[in-house]
Design brief:
- The protein is α+β, with helices and mostly antiparallel strands.
- It has five helices and nine strands; from the N terminus they run αααααβββββββββ.
């Protein structure tokens, strides 16, 4: 094999298998111990798979797929689109007399589009799924309160109060409150999105 050839780990990174495993488990409210009992695998092995410290075999993924009721292809769905744009909180700007100037934050939304807006509240320690692999999502998420952690393909982004992220993605993205405080975010998506 040539020296510049990517390793198996590098080739599989795009699929976020560990993140998908963890997301499936947390959505089903299963502990690692409970999943171990269901699959016959050790908690240590499952932990290594979820944290991408071990590459799963197809047989291992097939067993886990049966427990979760998903197709094996779920783990290998390829995200063809992933764009993410973050607008950080606008700092107050004062004019020469010390008066607060007008604060304006662009959320990259067209005034004539049909939109679906919602406020999502996150309790500390609870993770959810913002997007599903292979299903395109265009969305704007504005953090109203607290700190929001986004995880896309193993890359984490931490958004503070007042930060905004614009997404155009087919990648699995999970989100959660960061730290011990809750978080609230305004989420705006096209009106055709079924939730």
């Amino acid at each position: 094999m040539p020296k510049n050839s990517p390793s198996a780990v590098q080739l599989l990174e795009v699929y976020s298998i560990g993140q998908k495993l963890r997301t499936l488990r947390t959505q089903k409210h299963l502990t690692l111990s409970r999943l171990a009992a269901e699959t016959g695998f050790s908690t240590a092995l499952l932990s290594k798979l979820e944290t991408d410290r071990m590459i799963p075999t197809l047989q291992t993924l097939a067993t886990i797929s049966r427990v979760f009721g998903v197709d094996l292809g779920f783990f290998f769905a390829d995200a063809t689109t992933h764009r993410l744009s973050i607008t950080r909180r606008v700092h107050e700007v004062c004019d020469r007399k010390g008066q607060l100037a007008l604060k304006e934050t662009s959320l990259n939304m067209s005034a004539d589009s049909r939109l679906f807006a919602r406020v999502v509240e996150f309790s500390p320690g609870v993770a959810g799924t913002l997007t599903k692999t292979g299903l395109p999502l265009n969305s704007v998420v504005y953090v109203l309160e607290g700190r929001l952690c986004l995880n896309a393909g193993g890359v984490q982004e931490l958004l503070e109060t007042g930060d905004c992220v614009c997404l155009d993605s087919e990648m699995l993205i999970t989100w959660s409150a960061n730290g011990t405080s809750s978080c609230r975010a305004l989420v705006v998506t096209p009106g055709t999105l079924s939730t």
